[in-house]
Design a protein that fits this description.
Radius of gyration: 20 Å
Number of domains: 1
Strand order of the largest sheet: 1-2
Shape: globular
Strand content: under 5%
Helix content: over 70%
């Protein structure tokens, strides 16, 4: 179907809206990781790191879409262990999940007992830290990109729709990255909650790679519930501060 046909096809518009929403929701995981990672850099380098990391992630996602026929083949099992088949997609999910669990655990340890970390474990210098942050952003985005592209292929066969959805979702990430990072930095309790989210997401990726399907709705419902509870805690703390200041 050509571009004109897609524009005139109502089902194409439904698929586009659905894909954009899906990409934005899936991007929340990535955005939390980017916010925590770049907040470890010096202030003057943070926004630049976010823009470069997300910009390169967009280029990588569009390049992956160009190889969508190859990516779909990643779901074919390449070996078996105790009767369980593992594909390249499974191994990528497991690897990405282990990386997230490791990263979140290290960050939680760093936040709980910062005295043991004389220097940031991300890097020993600003330059190395900047490059390390960009590399880690791209590494994790590769994992999420392959998963979302395979899901997108099951929703629509039209590449233009996929391209538009990816560009729209990454644009939202680019706009929301700095406000979210600033919000997380200004609220220390949010940092621990965000790290817990990353830990849960990493565990979910490992489970998916091992063949256990975890409905995304359950994961995001748990995240939304936890965020709502923390919002109530923040509201209560602010009211107590105002009350104490008034006396």
């Amino acid at each position: 179907m050509d571009i004109v046909g897609l524009v005139q096809d109502p089902s194409a518009w439904v698929a586009l809206v659905t894909l954009v929403v899906m990409e934005v929701v899936l991007g929340i995981d990535n955005l939390i990781f980017i916010s925590i990672l770049t907040n470890k850099l010096p202030v003057e380098h943070r926004e630049k790191a976010r823009k470069i990391g997300i910009g390169l992630a967009l280029v990588m996602r569009l390049a992956l879409l160009g190889t969508v026929a190859w990516i779909v083949q990643l779901t074919e099992p390449v070996f078996e262990v105790v009767g369980q088949g593992f594909s390249w997609k499974d191994m990528i999910l497991i690897g990405g999940g282990l990386f997230l669990v490791w990263k979140a655990t290290k960050e939680i340890h760093h936040n709980v007992d910062p005295a043991e970390h004389g220097e940031d474990f991300i890097a020993k210098s600003t330059t190395t830290g900047f490059a390390s942050a960009i590399g880690q952003i791209l590494l994790l985005d590769l994992v999420f990109s392959i998963d979302s592209i395979i899901t997108a292929v099951g929703m629509t066969p039209h590449l233009p729709i996929m391209f538009i959805a990816v560009i729209a979702a990454v644009t939202v990430m680019l706009v929301a990255a700095t406000p979210l990072a600033n919000f997380i930095e200004k609220n220390p309790t949010i940092i621990m909650l965000a790290l817990a989210f990353l830990l849960m997401i990493g565990t979910t990726l490992i489970a998916e790679g091992m063949g256990f399907h975890v409905p995304k709705g359950y994961v995001y419902a748990a995240m939304a519930f936890s965020a709502a509870v923390e919002a109530l805690n923040m509201l209560a703390r602010n009211r107590r501060k105002r009350a104490a200041g008034g006396h």
